[in-house]
Amino acid sequence: MHCFHIPGMSCGGCLASVTKAIRTLDPQAHVEADLENRRIFVRSDKAEASLLDALANAGYPAQAIPAGS
Fold first, then answer.
1. Is the dihedral of CA 5, 9, 14, 17 positive or negative?
2. Rounded to 10 degrees, what is the CA torsion of 8, 17, 23, 61?
3. DSSP letter string over 20-60?
4. Mean pLDDT, residues 11-34 taken together
């Protein structure tokens, strides 16, 4: 599972855009969100770098959060 902090994600509309960006890369991805802390949790076989690129290209640059943080 990948965990990302997305500073620009502040509402459900943002989350929908973020989810769409992830699922464009991996249609089978499972995305969970913590809007209050602006984090998403992604279950995907895709590389972390690819997911970060997809988010940045969608206008939501993110930072990876190490597991357990």
1. negative
2. -20
3. HHHHHH-TT-EEEEETTTTEEEEE-SS-HHHHHHHHHHTT-
4. 94
